[in-house]
Structures are given as structure tokens and as C-alpha cells.
């Protein structure tokens, strides 16, 4: 067996994830992933681009006449708080995605590298960090979040909420990555990397992490969904930061002012519908990435 053969797994693992995702010809087509990414791109435009063109700050109350139905001037009407539902919805989508993406990116990075480290090194490191991971997984997240939010009476910063979400979500990917790395470290290309004098950190970054990219993409989109759903749930029951417009806080204020009972359907239906569609979109992305990963190992 020559050096060219031994190097093949490394080059294959370093193949760009984007190239794998957009390999859409013939049997490589993944309509589920394409649909999810297309709708997600639309959400990103609505949430991060559209709010820049808002004539006024949509989060500020009493800027517009109250309870106006949808019209040319106000495409989705106005709220009982004097806000444009259209512009408020765009800002809320962006903020919800920002929370979800912030939690997901940091959680996935920590989980991947912690899981890769303990899985590759093993020994006492695996035992100590493994106990920590299992302990954090055993703690129920939602009651802790509700208790935290209740203590601060809904005035806790969004940053603090994000940090808590990260603290309780990184152990899940770390445990899964550890299991995958236990198998990867027995591969022949890892032995070649060891014999060539590469250190632990270099092997993890250059040889192991590229194999985990499809899984990491699926986990990232799934974690975005989990983070948004937790924040939305906290906001709907009134224990999140209610001054920060998100899909959850938008639904909360609509419920507080009895929008459905007063016939103000345009206030509560858009955020509820956007939340449902966003969850379906993230599920399509997550399952699409999972199928991409499964197709590679087939």
C-alpha cells in the first residue's frame, strides 16, 4: 500500500460540505434539503434584511393608530399597542433566528471539539468529562430556564438566556461526537497521522473534524429549532424578556390583549404561522443534512 492510497481518506474527508449539499444531479438530488434551505433563505432575508427598511422602530409602542386591519398602508394591520404587525413580525423573525443561530453555532462548536477530544484521547479525560456531560444531560432544561426567568421577573437579558441555553445544550452533541470518534480513531488514516508526527490537536482538526461536518450541520439546524422553541415557550408563558421582540413575545402580547377574542386575527395568526413554518423548515434542513450524511456512508 503506497502513501497515495493512505492519503485518500484524508482528502475525501476534507471535501467541502457545500459541495456535498449542492450535489443535486441524478441520484444525489435531495429535494428535502433544497426545500428547507430555500425557505430558510427566505426567512433570513425577512428577518435580517427587511427590518433595515422599517420606517420606525417596530418594537416601540404607540407609533401608529391601534387595531387597524390589513391595508395597503399596513399590509398586516396594526396591534393594540400601536405597532405595525408587518414590521414587528420581520424584526421578531430576525431576533428569534439570531437567538437560535447564536445558541446553535456555539453549542455545536463546543460539542464537536469536546466530544472529539474525549473520544480521541480517552483515559481519565474521557471519564471526568463524561461524568460532567452525563450530569448536564440529566438536568431538565425547561424547569431551570423557567426558574431563572421567574427570578429575574422577565427582565433577564437575552444574552444571559442564550448563555444558559448553550450551557445545557452542548453536552448532547458532545456525547454523540464522542461515540463517532471512538470509531474514527481506529481507522488507518489516523494511524498514518500519528506515525507522521502530528499532535492530538492537529489530528482532531485536520483528520477527524472534516468527517463530522455533515453531522454537525444537521445538529446545528436541529439546535436552532430547539433554542427557538424554548425561547418561544418561555415568552408565551410570560417569563422571557418581553421587551425584546421575538416570535414568542409577539404571541404573548397578542394573547395578553385578547387578539383572537377581539377579532384581531392579523396580530396573532402571522407570528403563530411563521413559527410553525420555521419549525418545519428547520426540520427539513436537519433531516436533509442527515440524509446527506447517510448517503455518504452508504
TrEMBL record:
Taxonomic source organism: uncultured Truepera sp
The record ties this protein, via InterPro entries, to:
MetI-like, MetI-like_sf
Q: Which UniProt keywords apply?
A: Membrane, Transmembrane, Transmembrane helix, Transport
Q: What is this protein called?
A: ABC transmembrane type-1 domain-containing protein
Q: What cellular-component terms does GO give this entry?
A: plasma membrane
In which domain of life is the source organism classified? Bacteria
Q: Which family does it belong to?
A: Belongs to the binding-protein-dependent transport system permease family.
Give the location in the cell.
Answer: Cell membrane; Membrane
CDD domains, alphabetized:
TM_PBP2
Residues covered by the ABC transmembrane type-1 domain: 93-286
Q: How does this protein sit in the membrane?
A: Multi-pass membrane protein
Q: Which GO terms describe its biological process?
A: transmembrane transport
Looking at the UniProt entry, the stretches that span the membrane are 33-54, 97-121, 128-148, 154-172, 224-244, 264-285
Q: Known SUPFAM superfamilies for this protein?
A: MetI-like
